[in-house]
Amino acid sequence: MQDETPPADLLVILRHAPHGSSWLKEGLDVALVAAAFDRRVTLLFMGEGITALLEGQQAGPLGQKGTAATLAMLEMYDIDSLLVEERGMDELGLTSEQLMLPVRRVADAEIPGLLADHALVLNF
Q: Which of 23, 97, 99, 105 could covalently link to 53 via disulfide, CB atoms 3.0 to 4.6 Å apart?
């Protein structure tokens, strides 16, 4: 007998820059694995995590790869709900056109609702 419960929604919050730690890569990996198991995944890029979406990333000082290759795989895994923190975009002086993928900007006031709307929230 199969479980008829629909897949739980997963919100992955990415707060760290692409280089300097493994947090961002680990968060993206978790999102891909969850999507491979038919979970609906939403990614929310906040603060320095937004920089992962910038074009033209090079290897980091310790040889860390950029995130462009992983981000390119999101579509193959049906991860198409990409959100960016509006305040973070403004603080970094970025526009949506500078990012490699289409995103929806979310205001600070929307974030509590996003957290409440997802069965599972993971912070990276």
A: 99
